[in-house]
Amino acid sequence: MDTALQSMVECVRAAAATATPLRIRGGDTKAFYGEPITGETLDTAPLTGIVSYEPSELVVTVRTGTPLAELEALLAAEGQCLAFEPPRFAPGGTVGGMVAAGLSGPARASVGSVRDHVLGAELLNGKAELLRFGGTVMKNVAGYDVSRVLAGSLGTLGVITEVSLKVLPASPAEATLRFDCSQADALRLLNAWGGQPLPLNASCWVEDAGHAVLYLRLRGAVAAVEAACQHLGGERLDNAQVAADWDACRDLCLPWFEDPTATHDLWRVSVPQTAPVLAIDGEPPLIEWHGAQRWYRAAPGQGAAIRSVAKAAGGHATLFKPGSAAQQAAPARFDALSPALARVQRNLMHEFDPHRVFNRGHLGNAT
User: Fold this and answer.
1) Fold category of 173-255 in CATH
2) How many CB atoms lie within 10 A of CB 203?
3) Taking the domains of the chain in order of start, what are their residue ranges?
4) Looking at the DSSP assignment, which residues form a beta bridge with residue 321?
5) Is residue 249 helix, strand or coil?
6) Element spanning 266, H or E
7) If you write DSSP's letter for every residue of 150-167 in order, what string do you get?
8) H helices within 113-182, ranges in order?
9) Nearest alpha carbon to residue 128 among 279, 353, 359, 327
10) Which end of the chain, N or C, is less surrounded by CB atoms within 10 Å?
11) Which DSSP string corresponds to 280-310?
């Protein structure tokens, strides 16, 4: 065990003995996400470095304090990538923060989430024990897949110290098509295209200054992308020019996300892709994931109504980022779990962190 990891183990052991809460910090680029927490800082920055990388095996094992930008540069040099397009909301994000937050970018509906790409992990639990789960190949995953449970856990089960990830080759061809259409028409088109053998990768419908546009990104073999462009029509955009826009969509930096007053809450509504236009008051949403992820900017106080509409559509709503003026009075960030799921979550946390050391309350009341 190296010095950085040993120091971290000793810190957790001392915290467990005194029931001192710890706040796990990587790049601190997602501190806004989840319920606010306090505690002594446990910095993962010293846990850096690529443990192993086998491009031919499409797997990389990396220590979780490693900057995400460093990992992606390594993969890009081999013509590979993290296909789920992890967002970065500021420079300095780490691999551990990427997994703990469990957030995915525009391609998520087509390639899967962070969880789908986690093969194995090493975890420092609340008893100061180092545990390993999974491996570096899919066949090692059997029984209760703890390594994937860590994705989206927001550090409430322990410190992820190392993770093995499935990577994919970069697509040989890409094209972005633009269609002028209403929200209802965009959802209808996306549902229809989803049932066809098309290389759909990402989509974004947005209304800006009264002009409604659907952007559709295709990725795959050259022949498949070219055939899809001819079949679908629309206006084909220049890849080099539109790449920055897809990055801005991934990082929530498009003009739609700007709130000059800093008073509106940003809600993420997750519903089935086939859900119709939702009756939520206010400005039209920004829609991704072929209809499954819908962003809404809403004045404080609309949370209950938004959650009610989302539930009626078979989904749920997350207060992703409250307006600065409403931080203290903001509603719960996450929807309440069903009694059965809440019991499972509490039991997991008790097993991994019996002294409630890590990121206490970050996932809400169940934590």
Assistant:
1) Alpha-Beta Plaits (3.30.70)
2) 30
3) 3-169+346-352, 173-255, 259-326
4) 266
5) helix
6) strand 265-270
7) TTT-TTSS-EEEEEEEE-
8) 114-117, 146-149
9) 353
10) N
11) -SSS--EEEGGGTEEEEEE-TT-HHHHHHHH
Q: What is the CATH number that goes with domain 3-169+346-352?
A: 3.30.465.10
Tokens read off for 296 = 């809404």
Verdict on whether the full-model pTM lies above 0.90: yes
Contact between residue 105 and residue 156 where contact means Cβ atoms under 8 Å apart:
no
Letter string b/e over residues 340-350, b meaning 16 or more CB atoms within 10 A of that residue's CB: eeeeebeebbe
Give per-residue pLDDT as tens, 143-200: 457 888 999 999 999 999 999 999 999 999 999 999 999 999 999 999 999 999 999 9
Strand, coil or helix: 330: coil
Strand partners, 53: 60
- Mention every residue, 6+ apart, whose C-beta is less than 8 A from residue 304: 331
From 8, 28, 334, select the one nearest 158 (Cα to Cα): 8
- Per-residue pLDDT reduced to its tens digit, 251-299: 999 999 988 777 899 999 999 999 999 999 989 999 999 999 999 999 8
| Coil, strand or helix at 142 | coil
Rg (CA), the chain: 21
* Residue 159 CB contacts under 8 Å (≥ 6 apart), including other chains: 8, 12, 24, 42, 44, 64, 96, 123, 124, 358
Quickly tell me which residue has 């790449």 as its tokens: 243
| Distances in whole angstroms, Cα of residue 175 to Cα of each of 12, 151, 168, 181 | 49, 30, 19, 19
Give the CA distances from residue 347 to residues 83, 255, 328, 352, in Å, rounded to whole numbers and listed in that order: 32, 42, 29, 9
Q: What would the two tokens of residue 87 be?
A: 């967002």
Q: What's the distance, CA 78 to chain centroid?
A: 24
